[in-house]
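Collaborator request, handled under Task 6.
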Amino acid sequence: MAKIDKNSFGYLGHDYQLRLIAQLLTDRKFANSILDIVDPNYFEDPYLRVIVATIKDAKTVDDVVPDVGSLEFRLLEEVKDDMQRKFVISQLRKVQEADLNDTLKVQDMAMRFCKQQEMKKSMALVNKIIERGNLEDYEQVEAIIRKALEHGDNKDDGMDIFDEIEHVLIDDFRKPIATGIKGLDEVMDGGLSKGELAVILAPFGVGKTTMMTKIANTAMSDGYNVLQIFFEDNPKVIQRKHLSCWSGYDLNSLALHKDELMELVSQMTKGKGKLKLKKFSSDGTTIPVIRQYIRKLIAQGFRPDIVLLDYIDCVEPSRKFDDVNAGEGSVMRQFETLLSELDIAGWTAVQGNRSSISADVVEANQMGGSIKKGQIGHFIVSIAKNLDQKEAGTATMAILKSRFGKDGLIFQDIRFDNARIQIDMGESKGARTHTEHKADKEVNDQKRVNSLMAASKNRKEILNSVALPTQQTEQ
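Structure tokens returned to the collaborator:
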């Protein structure tokens, strides 16, 4: 039987096999999709086989795909011989250090790798049949080869409408991550779940970063791993915002409370949740670049539960588009796919267009650029501020879209304090529908007109009363 040439294009050898195992450990969704058809015997190195077998056992027995740390614990328990244990851990280190570049290509080739290994096994069986020379067995050859070629095909056959229906009916099946914003969490049925994408729509200078920081701060305090990505702010500015959020002190007065804040930081570092800040350049950063960075974090042992991308208008398309709007839609779709594949909750922000700057309520048609960014988002909330609200530290927030709750709600004059990173929708006039808000606005506008007319009438009466004595004196 002809052997596969290790120098040929079709050969997927040791380096690829290390990368494939690294993908299994860093991308749970990919692992869940491929583990059923991966056989430990596909791997050349005997210690890689032990690693893959342990991963499969963890999935079969405990229904979990282990990370590098937990896999090491399992291997130390599984492998009894000290020398073998040393070699297995050595190979695990190579897996951990494997290059994670071009991850999508590695994953795309995984099915080919499995088919290739099945073909090698099948050809060994076929060779034995030929050597026996029994013509009656020859008809088995076609079936053996067909089975190898079909290995893993159509693994996803869809699902019956009643599959796992008990899980569907559980109240907390979404397992949301709270925003920490009173009123918003109620509207979102507890917050944002993994795999879901939420979008903040607002004009410049209103508080998109304030809201993203508040959400990131809450998630870390609740014990989640948080990745906050930004493009325009200095990292120290974001750090100060988090200190204000935790302490309630004004950004400009943090230095006056240094000792107290250092003690607060000491307590926060003991918590379960971790918060990583990452500034990217707005020149050349694409979603694949961000995906690669997240995979690197996962390989290092930090798996984000939630990612906040501030903001998506700074991310460039991964390929050229003749239509700018098509490129923007592609970026948002790639971000949604990233969240789904890596099982992460995601918040991002979108800049409003020029008309949104003076709007009492920012609506969906005031989104800057491609409307597809709004079509892709699972939840969209907008923020509007007039000059009076900026002075008072308030804002108007509107729920424009929700796939898991009620939308079309407007919260007027909520607390929105950029200086202390404090947001509270509970401190408002309560949720109003768009119709109710419009009616209230008409009433308020009429009151304003009546007030102006009354003031004008009063001014005329005063002027007339001053002019009358003057005329009498002249006479």
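The cover message to the collaborator said: "The mean pLDDT is 83. The beta strands are 197-202, 225-230, 274-279, 306-310, 345-351, 379-384, 394-402, 409-417, 422-424, 431-433. Please let us know whether this matches your experimental observations."
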